[in-house]
Amino acid sequence: MGCRSLRIPGSSYRMINLHRDYLPAIALGITQIMGYGTLMYAYAVLLPHMADDLGLSLSSAFGILSLGLFFGGAVAPVSGALVDRFGGRWVMTTGSALAGISVMSLGFVQNTYGLFAAILCAEAAGMMVLYNVAFASVARLDLRVPTKKSISVITLFGGVASTIFWPITLWLYNWQGWQATWFILGMAYVLVCVPLHFFTLARPMTDAGTTNQAELADWPELTGQDRKRGMIWMLVSFIFSGYLMGAVMTLWVTNVQDLGHTAAMAAFAGAVIGPFKTVGRFFEMLVSRNMYPLVTYGLSLALVSAGFVTILTVGFTLPGLFIAAALYGMGDGIKTIARGTLPLALFGAKGYGARLGWISVVTMGLNASAPFVFAWTTQTFGGWWSFAAMAACIAVAVATFLLIPDPRQPNRTLSHAST
Questions:
Q1: DSSP conformation letters of 114-127
Q2: Membrane spanning segments where (predicted)?
Q3: Which of 83, 236, 302, 347 has the maximum number of C-beta atoms within 10 A of its C-beta?
Q4: Which of helix, strand or coil describes residue 89?
Q5: 162 and 234 assigned to the same domain
Q6: Is the Cα dihedral 355, 75, 208, 281 positive or negative?
């Protein structure tokens, strides 16, 4: 069989092309590890030490970060619109240069104003390089790999960002302090991400408003009133399903301790979440060939819901705690894929980047309050009730997900044809 394949150069050429067409997704996956590691997860390690040295309270320092994230969300629609118009190469290359410089500048701040300016610049630049822009960028490339598959590959890499960067950042801090750590992280980001964005996105692009046509032929867009209803219910579901991320990251250890576990065991169980995000994304990538994005999103909500049911019922036991962390991690990992593919499936490729940007504005703006809301719930009622409130949010997300119209339903298509 090997000899037969050698005598068919056309077949060999197609195989090489197929493998080469995965390179942009792989490269963007690497840059997502770097991006989330430096622009998101490093703050958890370094910001408390910066607050001490700058004479700030911890809440003030993280309040500045919340403002930076909110400002970054406001930049997202502009970045998405630029990708729609020009493609992702120059947007992501410029953004990675600006993000790296901004991260390096964090090592030189000497007061509150400097910290505020550096974080605002870093998070604004981050909206030019993180998931939504990466999804929109790969959708504009003329590739034989379906956009859905490329998005799955990108998120598969990004799931290990916390697993890699929390220990690296802590090691760098213990070795050189926070000033040098920020400079090293920023310089590494520039050296790795600028060339990857510049060279791997230098490929032919589809016409604006189009993407893999064979894929979109199986993804009919919503039309008429269903289009408006679909956007509303999808956005509401995204808001409630995304409201938990910041709360889980910041309150997991505290809430789990309230269930009767030690801080060390709570932290160890929390460390399971990151790797299982990657497990969930890898599973989705294996089975996603015939999986419609609406089904993918439903699967993610089901897994997250199962995780919260588990922790509320048997979370006081060690097996229950770790099963809950694994289920939540898998569901949250798959949800990231669905947040990129579902808007593409329901509303089409035209304006896809800007659409993701506006979704980010709404979700990030509202989700910024989540850590405070759930922290108050934990302090007032306890960790179990805080988890119960999170479960209630997932229940709302599921209920609104069920209201999203499915454009593949024959009766829906016929009703639109008659009008």
A1: HHHHHHHHHHHHHT
A2: 21-44, 56-78, 90-109, 115-139, 151-173, 179-199, 232-253, 259-279, 291-312, 356-377, 383-404
A3: 83
A4: helix
A5: no
A6: negative
- Coil, strand, or helix at residue 205? strand
CATH number reported for the structural domain that contains residue 61 in this entry = 1.20.1250.20
- Identify residue 301 by its one-letter amino acid code: L
Q: Which of 118, 298, 90 is nearest to 194 (CA)?
A: 90
Instruction: Please report, as a single letter, which amino acid is at residue 83.
Output: V
Which of 282, 199, 244 minimizes the C-alpha distance to 369? 244
CA distance 308 to 91: 39
Taking a C-beta distance cutoff of 8 angstroms, is the pair 244, 393 a contact?
yes
- Residues 151 and 278 reside in one and the same domain: no
User: Looking at the domain assignment, is residue 106 inside a domain?
Assistant: yes
The residue written with tokens 């419609």 in the block is 292
For residue 35 the two structure tokens come to 């991006």
Helix or strand holding residue 235 (H, E) = helix 224-242
Question: pLDDT tens for residues 360-390?
Answer: 778 877 777 777 778 788 878 988 999 999 9
Type of residue found at 391: A
Residues 195 and 76 in one domain: yes
**Side-chain half-sphere CA neighbours of 169 within 13 A:** 26
* Residue appearing with tokens 């981050």: 126
Residue-wise pLDDT for 11-55, tens only, equals 333 443 446 788 888 999 999 999 988 998 888 788 888 988 999
Domain count, the chain: 2
